[in-house]
Amino acid sequence: MDNGRKFIVYRSLNQQERFDLLLEFDDAMRRWTVINGIPDDPKARRIAVEQPAVPSVGRKRRGRTAVSALSGEPVSVWDAGEWYLAGDAGGYEAGHLRFRLHGALLLGRWALVRMSGSGAVERPPWLLIFTSVRDRHRN
Prior knowledge:
Elements: E1 5-12, E2 18-25, E3 28-35, E4 45-55, E5 65-67, E6 74-85, H1 91-94, E7 96-103, E8 107-114, E9 126-132
Antiparallel strand pairs: 1-2, 1-6, 2-3, 3-4, 4-9, 5-6, 6-7, 7-8, 8-9
């Protein structure tokens, strides 16, 4: 994945600490709900619950408000831009997706790591981890 793909971060207007991170994969956007904000400290970890994928959406401008078609609640586009794979191409399937974000607010490297647990969980949670300081180079 040499070319950047779209990412969008929606912020709930009802629940100020709830964000939805959407990453474009082929023709769909994979989506994770993140509580307590997108981490910007390598020591911080955030639980990210994967949600059903949604059709790919067009470019969004930061600050626009809308009603989420998924939850019916008001949301704003908190950030948008491009994301780049920073690890193994099979990282999503393996449960360890490393990527770079290049947006207006988010610029750096993150990882999504699927948590394994006991019992049958339909959608196991992931951890969203900020892994490096801001990238200064764009692709």
